[in-house]
Amino acid sequence: MRFERREHRPLALVIATPILAIIGALAIAGMLIAMAGAPVLTAYWKILTGAFGSRLSTTETLIRATPLILTGLAAAVAFRARLWNIGAEGQFYFGAIAAAAASAHLVGGWPSLLQIPVLFVFGALAGMALLLVPLWLRLRFSVDEVVTTLLLNFVVILFVSMLIDGVLKDPAAFGWPQSEAVADAARLPKLIARSRVHIGLVIAILLAVTMHVVQSRTVFGLQSRAAGLNPAGAIFSGVPLGRTLVIVAMISGGFAGLAGAIEVMGVKGYVTTDLSPGYGYSGIVVAMLANLNPLGVVLAALFTAVMFVGADGMSRSMGIPTYIADVTVALSLISMLIAVFFTQYRIRR
Amino acid sequence: MTALIDILASAGLWAAVLRIATPLILGTLGALLCERSGVLNLGIEGIMTFGAMIGWLAVYNGADLWTGLLVAAFAGGIFGVLHSLLTVTLGLSQHVSGLGVTLFASSFSYYVFRLLVPVADTPPTIEPFQPIAIPTLSSLPFVGPAFFTQTAPTYLAILIAILLAYLLLRTPVGLAIRMVGENPHAAEAQGINPMAVRYGSVIAGSALMATGGAFLTLSAFNSFFPTMVQGRGWICIALVVFASWRPERALLGALLFAFFDAFQLRLQTALSGVVPYQIFLMIPYILSIAALAVMARRARVPQALMQPYRRGER
Amino acid sequence: MSETVLEISGVSKRFGGNLANEDISLLLGKGEIVALLGENGAGKTTLMSILFGHYVPDSGTVRVMGQALPPGKPRAAIRAGIGMVHQHFSLAPNLTVLENVMTGTESLWSASSKVAAGRSKLLAISARFGLKVNPDARLGDLSVGEQQRVEILKALYNDARILVLDEPTAVLTNIEAANLFSKLKDMARLGLSLILISHKLDEVMATADRIVVLRGGRLVAERRAADTTKAELAELMVGRAVNRPVREGSTPGKVVLEAVGVTVRQAGVDRLKQVDFHVREGEVLGIIGVSGNGQTALAQLLSGTAQRSAGDLVLFNQGIGDLTVSDTVEAGIGRIPEDRNREGAIGEMAIWENAVLERLQHFSRHGLVDRKSGIGFAKRIIEEFDVRGGTPTSRIRLLSGGNMQKLILGRNMIGQPRILLAAQPARGLDEGAVAAVYERIMQARRDGTAVILISEDLEEVMALADRIQAIVGGRLSPSVKAEEVDARKLGLMMAGEWEKAATGAV
């Protein structure tokens, strides 16, 4: 049995791939649900109703999708250029604390129209700065950025924990470790009245569309794609590899940092060590499900949010551990990898 | 200053070094074995987590401690099969496949744990491995309590390090593994099946990783809780580079690293209040990054590492 | 003929739509040297891969010493006594000579390697066949010739009775090649049977007893070496009278590029050592040398991907500092890279994207890529340079080697470059594509382009170049006019013996 490279990829297959992958993941997750002694189809139904069954749950799903779109974009942009940024989780927190600190101690008095964009910039810059360290280590010392970005996640989360325990601690929070809240003027306006859904969702979607245009139409898009596909060929054709990777890192880290800032400004209002339930890591799955396509990231982020919010609801009503959502999302990643493989290769006897 | 000397002079520190080093030794050796055959196994964090959970669960359900370790090793091997299917048979990106395995193995372990062990105020515990005093040697002053009064898995880990060094350098299997990691086409031309060798290495390596994880629940602590592995898997990956892919150096690297970790813990208590504890906890991760920066260029990396092997393609 | 050691009967093998081997039958006698001749893509490597168990034939059998050989198992082939010496060595640079040789020779279940026994066996074989090696040397530290010795020793260590050598002199100088062939003849006298895969007619005529010609997957002819001529063999290989381009007389124009005392240092090693050369409009400067002597550094220097550490470069009469890739494109320097798949193209990208990637500044406005003009550009190249097998938007990966090379030539030449750097332009191409490439180079020369041709093929350089310099160990020989040298003199130059070549002494 051999694998033979396909010459043409049937479009139908390419579009069907993420759907097949998700079905595969759900099937295996179904086995785990059965293992818990619960009726599988009911569980699936409960996931859907858990995500969309009520106004509250639908808005919750949209709120969850927002940071996932951004961390998904962060991963997609980086992976496309073969920059393995696994540090979105740390960049998220760094962006969050940068925005919170800036609002609480620097620009808190500024009017919304000015303060919000400025805090976005703080968040994005923080994320960028963080990713540039592993990038520098790669360019200068040939260190694989996978491990360094991963290790930095732990460092950053400890650092943020230290800050909100100490310097940035909210004195009004009854001793609970959390940062001071951002100014009222920094809170993001609501998208849907009388709900928690904020304009961060729209910003995220707009950024996804922008990224798509950049990648498919600009010189930078073409060059970064070449750099990811064949670095030697890119160098020969004059693509400035180092500079391109730096820009990619800035965009990727920027998105992840922005995700943290937006989460603080739009949802919670302050930073705690559990601000992110793994958005950075889930972003990687989102990016792979979207096949690194920015527009696909929006859909994949929505799917992932549905899984998490829906599984939360399902687990409460059926007694199945909430981790089933994480398992299903992880399985989707693996099945997506396999599905993509089969769009590129066929089996030959 | 005297506080520093006090810490260094206590046998307790050195005993802790060996104890802290054990999961790192096993994890690093496991990752090293995979990488020597050409496969980067980033599933290590998840595999260690699952090993920690399943080993503990077996013992919680009545098995003896050694069976617990075996169950963990076996489970690790299964994840090794998964990783091999993705990276060796299908030749997928070793980075992304490994991350997928980690995400899956960790979340799966939490799921199973939460399913089979009800939530309680205090997590349930088991009776862990007890330190074994090696006759005669353990009565030596200072070195006795420091080095010769460890739990069985610690002695096992050191033994495995020595065996792995021997295996890689002095046996035909070891040569086959090394050749597959350097030039799988050359290995095939000599009648070796590179895919089979990679499968074997990854499965065995994953079993070692899971055993390292099980040490955390069966020896170091006596209960399982989510995120208990705390990035040790990634530290092991860094240590493999630091050890230049050699088992004897991996042993030394793990010990060196564990020394800094043990030292940092004691320093925390000595300096608590002056320096935030988070700074101390950061040290292991920062050290790992530094180790990578120093060694990445100098280490002799197996030349076929990360190259998928496709028969017929040169 | 003495006893038959190898019998290949009716072997066929198909890959997708391509019939690589069609009903091939072949006999090999003990102590015989048979050459397998054919151009790229004729099916030589496929046949030998089947012999070695790398592929399973669709039909046909192989018998070694009268016993049927189980197909598809390299181990069975090794046990039967077939030893393969690959063109791209099957060796691991990080391991020692002994480790490379002993891999796979012992059962994987034994608890320890019999290293001492292995070492003495290796040294014994080494002495018997006159192939000197140091068993404990790290393979990567050895010269190419020494590494090849290890390749051969590996086969002999496995008690090979039949040795298959795939293009063994591709990486050797004339002198090393001559040594190798005399060793091979000694081995044949000692009872070994040899199959020599080659496309070099001189070697084949000088060394082989019998010559088998493959063309388009079929065995088209078999001759005794004594009974045939180079011309006949060439024609049999290609299937028609071979037409090499004729280099007409010309008067070169002014000097467009000159290098004086240029050194290129990479990773602490001087890859190019104080080299001097110049090239004029309308002339071809051939740089001949066996690969690994600094050609890559030279090509990188002129392509803008490596910078010099010392010396001067004068371009169009102006001294220049560092030369970057975009400088070369702006200056009108066309570059044909040595490895078209690695450097020349981004496989997954479209043909038009590959066509414009190195000159995006001409196909974009305000940072946005002008897709329409890019596709138009690609269309022109496809038409003018006869690129078949793709459209501007199809992936470049799908093109055959020859067509990809035509595209690469086209994207450079369509803009009438003033200088053309061609590194190994005909490597790995079939005869038709080779002729097309040579014609384009001659056309460029006619149009007044200054061409620098870096090649390992003596015949190619002698046919196309006006002046020739040999590159040896990072140094360039003085330039000689093509009319004033022959293969023997060039061989001497390639071995570094410039003075001898000049005086004619041997």
Could you please describe the fold and organization of this structure?
The complex is a heterotrimer of chains A (349), B (314) and C (506). A two-stranded antiparallel ribbon of chain A has the order 1-2. The longest helix of chain A has 30 residues, at 112-141. Chain A is globular. Chain A has helices spanning 11-35, 40-52, 55-80, 88-105, 112-141, 145-165, 200-217, 219-229, 231-236, 241-268, 279-289, 294-318, 323-344; strands at residues 2-5, 345-348. With 349 residues, chain A is mainly alpha-helical. Chain A has a domain at 66-289. Chain A contains 13 helices and 2 strands. Chain B has one domain (14-117, 147-295): ABC transporter involved in vitamin B12 uptake, BtuC (Orthogonal Bundle), CATH 1.10.3470. In chain B, 71% of the residues lie in helices and 1% in strands. In chain B, strands 1-2 form a two-stranded antiparallel ribbon. Chain B is built from 13 helices and 2 strands. With 314 residues, chain B is mainly alpha-helical. Chain C is built from 18 helices and 23 strands. In chain C, the strands form 5 sheets. In chain C, strands 13, 16, 19, 20, 21, 22 and 23 form a 7-stranded mixed sheet that branches. A 6-stranded mixed sheet of chain C has the order 6-7-8-3-9-10, sandwiched between helices. In chain C, helix 14 packs parallel to helix 15 (431-446). The longest helix of chain C has 16 residues, at 174-189. Chain C is globular, with a radius of gyration of 24 Å. The chains are: A mainly alpha (349), B mainly alpha (314), C alpha/beta (506). Chains in contact: A-B, A-C, B-C. The interface between A and B is large, with 46 and 44 residues.
